[in-house]
Amino acid sequence: MKKFLALALAGSMLFTMPVMTAQAVEDSVEDDAGDDTGDDAGDDSGDDAGEETGSKSPSASTVKPKPKKKPVREEAATPVPTVEASSAPTAVVQAAAAEGKTVGEYMNNAVIAVPGLENAVPIGQGGHVIINGAPSNQVFSVLKPALAHVNSAKLFAASLGGRVLTVARVSASINGFQSARVNFYMKGVTAGQNIKVFQNVNGQWLEVSVVEIRADHVVVDMTGLGTLAFIETAGE
To answer: How far apart are CA 81 and CA 75, in angstroms?
Structure first.
């Protein structure tokens, strides 16, 4: 009976020892794999563990040290160039300043801000002036008026019971014409609006013939160059 128990105990120890060894190796492998500073120890431990457990325990043989991950190097992003609006040529800036205009007014042959007149209606001219009844490519320049002419136009408009929409000095490379039909662009003007146009001649405001008034346009017949006042009057 004692011999039987001794043999049974010895057999039990033989079966349990490989399992304990596998568990011990498995724990060792995990510790070595998680340790970032033990590169050499981790490699030796992993190799020994693989050799010892490869024939004893399948679960232990599948455990391998986790390879170190190399830090990902982030490259600096390429800066996006800022697109800036190109400035006007120096010659244009100087020419606009010489006329007392902004660059926008100068480039568009227009007058938006009028000295001494609040809320002036913008005015411009796009060419195709009809000279003496014949179409042409002539452009009439729209320039800033003198302050004295603006103040005079305001007084004259008040005498008519009206108000000044805008005042502009009109110039051109051509002179001495008998008639010039000029189409002025005036933003905000409506068809049928009561607008009269006067030209300052030697200090007097003389009426100019208005040919047409339509949306954003006033067409007049001029007999000479000079300063024009566009006056809105009460309906007759």
So the answer is: 18
